[in-house]
Design brief:
Elements lengths: L6 H21 L6 H30 L3 H10 L5 H8 L12 H11 L2
Length: 114
Amino acid sequence: MNTPEWLKPGIYGAVIGAVFVGVVGFSWGGWVTGGTANDRAMAMFRDDVVASMVPVCLDMAQSDPARAEKLETIRAASAFQRRDAVMAAGWATVPGADAPDRDIAQACLAALEL
């Protein structure tokens, strides 16, 4: 098969150009794979759910009759045990859930400003 002389450099140029565009696109262009996009979307979804549940946690804390005692327990706990203390207080349990949520407890703790 006879191919024109100009075809070989044209094919090499197209292949090298495609590789270059792919490298630049994924490095600096902001392109991501489907799996990465899904992971980022799930993380944003989780953050939004936690942010939407903080007012519920604060409302549960305000309406709790044993609020003062529980706040003292939370304040008395060390910095890394405060989240567990909020969970033990029951304020980080989403209505309808069986167990408290650690992320909601952390966000609620930050909103309580102890």
